[in-house]
Amino acid sequence: MTQQFPPTALAAIQAYQERHGTMPTVLARAPGRVNLIGEHTDYNDGFVLPAAIDRNTWVAAGTRSDGQVLATALDEDQAEDLFKLEANPPHHPESGWRDHVRGTLAQLVALAPNLPGMNLVIAGDVPMGAGLSSSASLALALLRAAQTLSGHETRSGKQLARLAQQAENQFVGCQCGIMDQLASAEGQPGHALLIDCRSLDTEPVSLPSGTALLIAHSRVRRGLVDSAYNERRQQCEAAARAMSVPALRDATLAMLAATELPDTVMRRARHIITENQRVLAATQALRSGDMQSLGELMAASHASMRDDFEITTPAIDQLASLLQGVVGSAGGARMTGGGFGGCVIALLPQALVPAAMAALEAGYRSPEGLPALVYLCEAGPGAASVHLDATGTMAG
Length: 396
Ligand code: GLA
What we know:
The structure is a single chain. This protein is of the alpha+beta class. The chain has two domains: 7-200 and 382-387, Ribosomal Protein S5, domain 2 (2-Layer Sandwich); 207-377, GHMP kinase, C-terminal domain (Alpha-Beta Plaits, 2-Layer Sandwich), CATH 3.30.70. The chain has helices at residues 7-20, 97-111, 134-150, 157-172, 179-186, 225-242, 253-257, 263-287, 291-307, 314-327, 353-363; strands spanning 26-35, 47-48, 50-64, 68-73, 79-84, 117-124, 191-196, 202-206, 211-221, 332-336, 341-349, 373-377, 384-387. Strand 4 (68-73) and strand 5 form a beta hairpin. The two termini are 13 Å apart. Bound molecules: alpha-D-galactopyranose. Alpha-D-galactopyranose is lined by residues 35, 39-40, 42-43, 176-177, 179-180, 337-338.
C-alpha cells in the first residue's frame, strides 16, 4: 500500500477520527474481483480465472479495551453495529453487512481467542450487489485489519481466504466456493489468477498490455440468489455421486454419457466439465496472446451458462451479445459471477472502449428502462494492511 491513500481510504480515516476522537492505528484494503472464465467450477474442485479489480473495501481500525467491536459502515449512512467479540456470536436481526462483519471476525476469534476488541470504520468503492464480490472484499479487509491490529500477522492469503469463505458458508448461509476470497487475497496488478480450487495453487497470468476490463452491470438482480446458487451446488454434488467421483473436477464427458441422470442434472454437470476445459484453454490463449480463441471460449462459456447451467437472464444475454458484437475477434465477453443478473465482462483492446460504450448506450436498457452501469477496471493488487502513526500516515 502506498502513502498516497485514495479518497475512499481518507474518508474512512477521517470518519474514524470524528467518531472515536483518535487516529486509527491500522488501515486495511481488499479488492473486489471479476471472473474472466470458470463459473461455478470452484466448489466442484475445478479451475477459475478471476482478476482482482482496482476497486476496494477499506477498513480503518483501532483497538478498544472492552472486548467489543464497534463497526461503522460509511456507505450505509454510517450505520453501526456494536457486538461482543466471540467465536459464536448471534446473528444481527437485520443481517446484511453486519452479519458479514460478525461472521468473519468470529472465524478469527476461534483461532486467536485473545483478539482485542476493536473500532472499525468501513468504506469502499466495490459496487454492492453487482456480482463483483463486495462481500469477499469486506471479509478480507476485516481479516487483514484484525490480524494487523492483534500483531498476529502470520496467516497467509490462502488461510485468510479460507476463513472468509467459512464465514460465508457457516454464518451467512451461502455455500459459495473459494474463488472470490482467494482472488481478493492474492490478486496481482496486470494479471488474472489461474486458481486450482482443489490444491488452492494460484498462478498469475499476464493480461496483454493495452487490454481493458470493461464491466457492464445489467442492473438486474434476481431475488433468492442464494437459494438458486445452493441448488446448483446440490445438483453438481448429486452428479458427482452418481459418477462415483469425489467432485465434478474428476468427471469426463465420456463418464457423463455413460451415466443415467435426470436431464437437468446432466446439463449442470456438462457445464462444469466443459467449463473446466475452457478455463485451461483460455489460460493458454491468454499466455500466447491468442485473443480470438479467448473470445470463442468466453462465448462458449456464456452459452453453457445460458443453456446448461441456466444462470443467465434475457437482459444479461442481450448485454453479452452486444459486447461480443463490438469486440469481434479482438477479445471476448460473457456473464461474470454467480449469475441471475449482475454483470458482463468484456476483455477488449483499449481502442475499442468508446465503441463498446456507444453500443451499450444505444442498444441496452434494463427491464426498468435504465442504461447499463459501466465500470472500466484494471487488474489490481490483492489485500494488504499497514500500521498508521499518530498523524494517520504510514508508520515505520
Ligand atoms: C459466486 C461465489 C463463487 C463462485 C461464483 C460462480 O461469486 O461466491 O464462489 O462460485 O459465484 O463462479
